[in-house]
Amino acid sequence: MSATAAGARPRSAGFRLTGTGLMLRFLLRRTWARLLVWPAVVVGMTAVVVAYYKSEFDTPEALAERAVLSNSAGMKAIFGHITSTGLGGGVWSEMWMFTAVMLAIGLIFLLTRTNRADEEHGRTELLLARPIATTSGLVASVAWLTLLCVVAVAGAAVVCGAYGLEWTGSWIMGASLGGVGLTGVAVAALANQLTVTSRDANGLALGILAVFYLLRTIGDLKGNALTWLSPIGWGERMDPWGHDRWWPLVLIVALGIVCITLAIGFQLRRDYGAGLVRSRPGPVGSAGFATTESGLTIRLDLGAAIAWVAGMALWGILLGSTLTDMNHPHLDGRRPRLDHRHGRRRPQDPPTHPRPPSLHQHPAPRRQPLDGHPDRHHSHRRSAPRLRAVGLPPPGHPSVTPETGPDRDGRPPAGGVP
Q1: Cα–Cα distance for residue pair 170/200, rounded to 1 Å
Q2: What integer pLDDT is reported at residue 213 of this predicted model?
Q3: Spatial separation of the C-alpha atoms in residues 349 and 84, rounded to whole Å
Q4: CA distance readout (Å), 252 to 35, 46, 112, 219, 296
Q5: Per-domain boundaries in the chain
Q6: What's this model's pTM, rounded to 2 decimal places?
Q7: Has residue 19 got a pLDDT over 50?
Q8: Which of the given ranges, 80-84, 131-135, 246-250, 389-393, has the highest pLDDT on average?
């Protein structure tokens, strides 16, 4: 085993870019499919949401009603605060928060896969056998993922502008998406230097992103300055098609530069295969269950499973809290339309398709039979199936006379009716 693999500190003359071009080509050949997925997802989701809003909310009144719902407490906690009540504001409230956070999560996993995971499995040691600088892999990964954010920004902006939205707001919306994605890249680059395993690196980066999201949520609900402590809040405060602010993007870029610079400095000073935060040693012995394959799997994945279940439960609580906002008085005129699509109608709502007045105000006259007895004609027709079901002969049977009724066998009673 080499000295580097044994944990010796690598001799580095400082920050260099030797072999970065080779690493760029290697990462492109290895992860080109994954690099194409996220721009395609962002652009495709933007196109679907914009097309849906243009066809569904086609009047200013409908967009105003949607804006009232979007600024309720539950929706504000999930999707953020908006000021625009037009088509752009509806598109932003529908897709921005979800798309931006998912982009950041995807880039966190991508950067960890090409850095800490390769170092954990020994692939980085094979690459360092060539004349490649220690930091070339991290620099190449950050470069490709930053370019991915730029492509997603341009694609989302072009789609919004092509559907008729204002171009200034379209570019700001795309830039805010890319800014949150860049935040995920920066946080992941720093977390990869602090931890030893790729599992811990992903967990730490996702935890930091969750703290940013929580600060943004509390700040929006309370209306205080906590939103400005979160990079997600900075992207939200760019407010496309509203105030159209560009300057919060400067804060996001500055934070990304600081985190990536710290990550490069930490990688130059730490040991290969180690992290700045020393991993906690496990127990000397283990239970019998942990020595089996299923026990080891549960032991390794239990923490991640609990975190995902807790996150989904919290997400469900937030979504459930928005149901009470559906009773807003400004949305009363729109409820029957939304419910009618699912084949349901609320009891308190008026009928969607009322019956014509002629059907219940002017009933048709009863048809008169030839014998002049309408009651006998219709009652015999209606009662015959019921009487046969219980074993009684229908009216008009020879065993039935006006003076005596039939018995269970269809014969008149001997004594008649008293």
Answers
A1: 37
A2: 92
A3: 30
A4: 22, 22, 21, 18, 40
A5: 23-278+298-330
A6: 0.70
A7: yes
A8: 246-250
